[in-house]
Structures are given as structure tokens and as C-alpha cells.
Amino acid sequence: MTDAFTGAEGPVIGVLLAGGLARRMGGGDKPLRMIAGKTILDHVIQRLAPQCSDLVINANGDPARFAPWHLPVVPDSVEGFAGPLAGILAGLDWAAAHQPAIRHVVSVAADTPFIPRDLVARLAAAVQAEATQLACAASGGWSHPVNGLWPVTIRDELRHALTVEQERKIDRFTQRFALVTVTWPTDPIDPFFNANEPDDLSTAEDLLVRGLV
């Protein structure tokens, strides 16, 4: 990866959360659905890669389906599809094991094709300015904590929350820390638009064709 964000907190590893069950999409991997001739995952990587020193994909099942992207594929270490918190933990553990100098990981929902190109810079700047531990994104009056900046140092507490406390809600977990929320405008489009249902794919393609993103 090139042109990675290198602020006071150093480079950041991006974790693409692709471990969802996609029930409303009829099952399968939402990030592998097509929009304007590219997979959703391609769109996300195109926007996030310049912001990070490295990317990893969090996904369960056969990792071979992600082979074309030549990125590490990290499964959940918590069994039973424990949700995005388990994916975030997988990313934090990968960073600690493979790049111990890395201090922060940014998590991104892998079904959000229009993720902001300034996501990492703004989240990192907010953490520094507000002296908080965590940062998450928001838009249109809604918080999107799955898109957030996480210090690697919280991974043991997160593991305890998942495995001992059976915590599954991101909002409840983040309440334990100093958190800053960074808001993005929704004009002309919400950058955290995500493809949950088949009709969302058509909507996303229309936005791209019209040049709104």
C-alpha cells in the first residue's frame, strides 16, 4: 500500500469486515456482489488502501474465494458468528502478531462501496484532538461504529467481552472507553451507504453512473 496515513499515531492497518451472513441479500458474500463492473470489495479497497499501510480481510469459511485480492484473510477466533466485534478482534490480533509496531487498526464494513477517502485521517485526528481511545464514524444522525479506529492495546479486553461476557453489541462495548464520533456529510450521498438488499446494488450503480461518488 502507498501514501498511507502517517500522523502522530503512526501507520494504520485496515480490516475489511466481510464476515456477515448476508441474510437480506439471500446469503453469500455481499462484498463479492457486482456494482458497475467491479465487486463491492474492489470499490472499498480502492478507497481504503491509500489510507492504510496494509489491508486484511476478515472472513470465515474458505479463504480461497478472496485469493484474487492477494490479501491476508483472517477468520474470527470466536465461534458462532459473533458479529463485527469478533472481526475487529481478529484484525487486532493479526496486527499484534504480524506487525507489532502498529498501534491502531481501522475497521470498515466491506459492503460500503463509497467509504470516505479521508476516513483514517479524520478518525485519527479526532482521537488526537480529543485525547480519546476510540473513534467511530457517523452520518445522517446515525452512528456507524463498525467503521472505527481501534487501539491494538484493547484486544485482550475485547476478547474477554466476547468470550466471557458474551458481548455482541459494538455500542455497549465502546461505552467502556473514551470515544469520539466523527460525522460526515450526506450530500450528495451518504458515504456509509451499504448494500444490504438486492435493490441496494441497483441504487449504488446508479450513483456511480451519475458520477455522484
Tell me what you see in this structure.
The chain has 213 residues and is an alpha/beta fold. The protein has one domain (12-209): Alpha-Beta Complex (Spore Coat Polysaccharide Biosynthesis Protein SpsA, Chain A), CATH 3.90.550.10. It has 6 helices and 9 strands, in the order βββαββαβαββααβα. It has helices spanning 40-48, 84-98, 119-130, 155-163, 170-174, 198-209, and strands at 12-17, 34-35, 38-39, 54-58, 73-74, 104-109, 134-139, 142-151, 179-184. The protein has a 7-stranded mixed sheet with strand order 5-4-1-6-8-7-9, with helices on both faces. Strands 2-3 form a two-stranded antiparallel ribbon. A hairpin with a 2-residue loop joins strand 7 (134-139) and strand 8. Helix 2 (84-98) runs antiparallel to helix 4 (155-163). The protein is globular, with a radius of gyration of 16 Å. The two termini are 22 Å apart. Mean pLDDT is 90; it is low at 1-8 and 22-26.
